[in-house]
Amino acid sequence: MNSKIDTARTTSPEEMYAALSQRLGDIVPDFELRAKAQVAAEVNQLKADRGAVILGHNYMEPALFHSVCDYKGDSLELSRLAAEAPGDPIVFCGVRFMAETAKILSPERTVLLPTPKGGCSLAESITGEDVRRLKEKYPGVPVVTYVNTYADVKAETDICCTSSNAHKIVASLDSDRVIFLPDEFLAKNVARETGKKIIFPRVTGDLPTALGGNGASAGASGSLEYDMIGWRGRCEVHEQFTPEDIANVRRQFPDVMVLAHPECSPEVVEASDFSGSTSALIHAVKEADARRYLLLTECSMADNIVAENPEKEMVRLCSVRCPHMNEISLENVRDALTLDRFEVDVPEPVRSRARTSIERMLEISYGRSPTGPQP
Ligand code: 13P
Ligand code: SF4
To answer: Measured between alpha carbons, how far is 96 from 123 in angstroms, rounded to an integer?
Structure first.
């Protein structure tokens, strides 16, 4: 990147194009870079005029990721930044649950999501009512919820977690049993790492309390012995990767380092060389000295890594994409700032209850709450 040009600030299309072509010239066709540079410069002008701040998840497409974002990161880092980074409105380049988290932590600010949808199969797999039924079934058992959920679910939660701190959050609870929602695979990966036993109960109709599940065992009295109570939510992207994909790539490239997000199945994580949050995966590639890398996560991230580490060779499985993250573009970020859309709101009392569960997580992860006193 041309070190003199601050791509999150420049309002000159020529400067933006020069900087983007230096970084992305080998990845994005030149005619597209020219068009994207024009839009990115317009976005920066709007941002300056409005005093806005743009937060971008690591999955954003390369031209957006490397231009207008003031802050970038994984879900945990962006939660902290949503509370701390100055600017109003906050334009959230990610999916709806992330923008909701920003609004929960910064209720006095306007939060814009550049798409009307921005879904997530995990967030859609569970409702607040589901959590209430689980709590009735397992009274007193603390509820740990992945941030990939909507505010009504967080409002029923004791403490949130992300892919970067799930193990630490579970370990921090003074309880030998936890309800861990809603990602089946993340729960199984945490259970595997911590040696815990996990079950997946049904909470609808008159069905039995607990049905099967990894490692669940019936004691002599017929009662079940387990430490974690899970839910059958899955990421529609990460569930598609298989151990066979890894074996096929290793056969062709024996020197490949395989990195998997913990939303992948435990079999895939087991067959990989490294697992972690999106930022942890980026960091691991930067630090490693392997010849080639296979990232089992949204494919844009491989391009974003190569842009900063041109010497790294990435093997891409790009038929697996997150359609929700891919709804965000420089064009709809410009429209969001021009038309003040699509505003994200989280009404009370859900917001305050959800905030408590996110703040507990931030306190454990960062040793303090970044939000301070709240209205
Ligand atoms: P990270 O918290 O690792 O960025 O993950 C968010 C996500 O949605 C991954 O699919
Ligand atoms: Fe949700 Fe999966 Fe997309 Fe992440 S990659 S936003 S978990 S659907």
So the answer is: 9
Instruction: Indicate whether residue 275 lines ligand 1 (CB < 6 A).
Output: no
Over the chain (375 residues), what is each successive 10-residue block's mean pLDDT?
82 98 96 98 98 98 98 97 96 98 98 98 98 96 98 98 96 93 98 92 54 37 73 98 98 98 98 98 98 96 95 93 97 98 98 98 85 49
Ligand 1 center to residue 75 CA distance, Å? 6
> For 369, what's the count of Cα atoms within 13 Å in the CB-facing half-sphere?
12
- Enumerate domains of the chain plus CATH numbers: 2-120+326-346 (3.40.50.10800), 123-229 (3.40.50.10800), 238-321 (3.40.50.10800)
Can you give the pTM of this predicted structure? Answer: 0.93
Give nearest CA residue, ligand 2 atom 7: 235
Q: What residues does ligand 2 touch, defined as CB less than 6 Å away?
A: 95, 120-122, 148, 235-237, 263, 298, 322, 324-325
Q: What is the CA radius of gyration of the chain?
A: 21
Cα of 148 to ligand 2 centre, how many Å? 8
Please state, in angstroms and rounded to a whole number, the distance separating the CA atoms of residues 96 and 94: 7
